[in-house]
Amino acid sequence: MSTSTGSPRPAADVPVAATASGAPLVPMPRGGKPHVVRRARRRRSRILVNLAAVVVFLCSVFPVYWMVSTSFLPNNLIRSPDPTFAPTNPTTGNYRQVLFEESQFPFLDALRNSLMVTVLTVVVALVLALLAALAVTRFRFRSRRSFIVTILIVQMLPGEAMIISIYRLLDGWQLTNTVLGLTMVYVATVLPFTIWTLRGFVVGVPIELEEAAMIDGCSRTRAFFTITFPLMAPGLVATGVFAFIQAWNEFVTALVLMNRPENITLPVWLRSFRQVNSGTDWGAIMAGSTLMTIPVIVFFLFVQGRMTTGLVSGAVKG
Questions:
Q1: Closest listed residue to residue 224, CA positions, set 137, 95, 112
Q2: 115 burial class (0-12, 13-18, 19+ CB within 10 angstroms)?
């Protein structure tokens, strides 16, 4: 009685993968090739994720498009019950009213005030926050943890709850209706968050990098600016963006502290187009809002390039 010396044959109901010569390789599971099934599932998942991303993108972009589109419409179409999604006969009358109407507060003065306050807030907040973040991460001193907890507690306090005290304090110092006074309030508002954010970036930079540079002959200051500072550039950019947004869009504090027409900022300037007797001029508001976004777009385009530069320069020594 002879026995078979070949390889064991698979079950009859299990398909077998074979080479071009017909030699069996590996039994295949029922239902087809597994990598094909996984690829199909992966493709369906990518399609669903892409569709969700498109929906989120459209929901985010549509308000901006509606603002810009409405700024080119005349008031009769804006107040019409039938919405106009695309202006067929665009007009620049709203922009002329915003820029050159003598009865309104001057746009250029409000733009200058907003730029001065925002730039000063970003620069001062970044400098102070960087020094504070370095102190709480690189040095050990008494009450260091209490200082960090205090930063979080101060961040949770609403600014509107202290607006009366802030006004009386600045009024006693003769700093109401001044760029310096408003900048001081904005710096105090954004400083806790910027310190906390920069602290995380400073912790992520090993101190051994500075020590290695000092062994190579660099001073502590040169080691910081050539090794550590480029690595913290993305953190500075992130905190600078937060400070910029807070200072540029803030309304309540600027409305209370800057009550003279020549000292108002852009958010308060937009309020001038809402009249009690004549109603709200939505065309002018949309045109002014569109003009307000232009410096923000320029700032973000500038910051995007600086963020990439900081990442690349921080990855290469010297």
A1: 137
A2: middle
With residue 160 as reference, give the H or E element that holds it.
none
Answer yes or no: do 126 and 55 share one domain.
no
Q: Is residue 16 domain-resident?
A: no
Same domain, 114 and 86: no
For residue 196, the tally of other CB atoms under 10 A from its CB is 18
Classify residue 4: in a domain, yes or no.
Answer: no
3-state secondary structure 120-133: HHHHHHHHHHHHHH
pLDDT tens column, 84-141: 888 888 888 889 888 887 666 788 889 999 999 999 999 999 999 999 988 888 887 7
Residues 175 and 190 in one domain: yes
CA distance 68 to 61: 11
Q: Are residues 148 and 62 in the same domain?
A: no
> Considering the domain boundaries, does residue 119 fall inside one?
yes
Residue with tokens 């260091």: 144
My answer on whether 115 and 68 are in the same domain is: no
Residue pLDDT, tens place only, 66-84: 999 999 998 888 888 888 8
Shared-domain flag, residues 45 and 189: no
What residues form DSSP beta bridges with 275? 279
First vs last Cα of the chain: how many Å apart? 81
Number of domains in the chain: 2
Give the integer Cα–Cα distance in Å for 30 and 52.
Answer: 33
Q: Residue for token digits 């200072």?
A: 247
Domain match, 70 and 210 both:
no
User: CA-to-CA distance for 114 and 27, rounded, in angstroms?
Assistant: 72
201 plus 264 within the same structural domain:
yes
Burial of residue 212, with CB atoms counted within 10 A of its CB: 0-12 exposed, 13-18 middle, 19 or more buried = middle
pTM for this entry: 0.77
In this structure, is the dihedral angle defined by the CA atoms of residues 126, 131, 134 and 136, taken in order, positive or negative?
Answer: negative
d(CA 202, CA 138): 8
